[in-house]
Amino acid sequence: MASKAPPTDLTIRTASHSDAAALVAAIDDVAREGRFFTRSAFSQNPEVEAAFIDLTIGRGGTVLVAETSGRIVGWLTLRRDKTPFRRHVCQLGMGVLRPFRGQGVGRRLLDEGLRFAHASEKIERVELAVRATNVAAIALYQTAGFCYEGRRMRAVRDDLGRYDDEILMAHATTTM
Length: 176
Ligand SMILES: CC(C)(COP(=O)(O)OP(=O)(O)OC[C@H]1O[C@@H](n2cnc3c(N)ncnc32)[C@H](O)[C@@H]1OP(=O)(O)O)[C@@H](O)C(=O)NCCC(=O)NCCS
Description:
Bound molecules: coenzyme A
Largest sheet: 7 strands, mixed
Number of helices: 4
Number of strands: 7
CATH architecture of one domain: 3-Layer(aba) Sandwich
Strand order of the largest sheet: 1-2-3-4-5-7-6
Radius of gyration: 16 Å
Distance between the termini: 32 Å
CATH class of one domain: Alpha Beta
CATH topology of one domain: Aminopeptidase
CATH superfamily of one domain: Gcn5-related N-acetyltransferase (GNAT)
């Protein structure tokens, strides 16, 4: 829950090449908590990550970063599907560094991501999969208008052999 006010200098902006190394470090930090993603580390080469930023943006999606005091403390990606019949769909991923949670950073990132999706003529639907034990993220997505679409049973098995379900959610960004 957003129990503290957001950092006063918090900015949400589109990522650029020069953010690649900090972005990898932020994703790796959250992955290493082991409870949220489907991996326990993220060791991407920054040059590959810079290419990923370009490709994601070039295909009509976005990569946003949350920055405070010159530090990247959160991110959000919207990746458009490249399959011919699914180009109206994009996949959402996001995270906020642990010390910066509960301060409204995730909400600001998601608001901005959804604003981008609504403004895009190409995106009609934002999809995501979230681990069933991740109550904070599920609450955030529900309050932002995402609908429950299903559950993949025991879809995740971590390094210690513990299982988790995945909840599938989606947000329509056009009126049907
Ligand atoms: C999910 C996550 C991005 C939320 O970011 P955050 O900056 O902490 O969230 P905010 O402070 O903006 O809170 C937004 C909403 O999230 C929900 N929320 C946040 N923390 C919560 C908690 N501990 N318990 C329940 N709900 C919570 C609430 O609905 C909250 O809205 P409210 O403040 O009006 O009650 C963050 O917890 C995170 O990075 N988690 C690890 C990575 C992750 O789970 N990524 C998503 C994978 S699908």
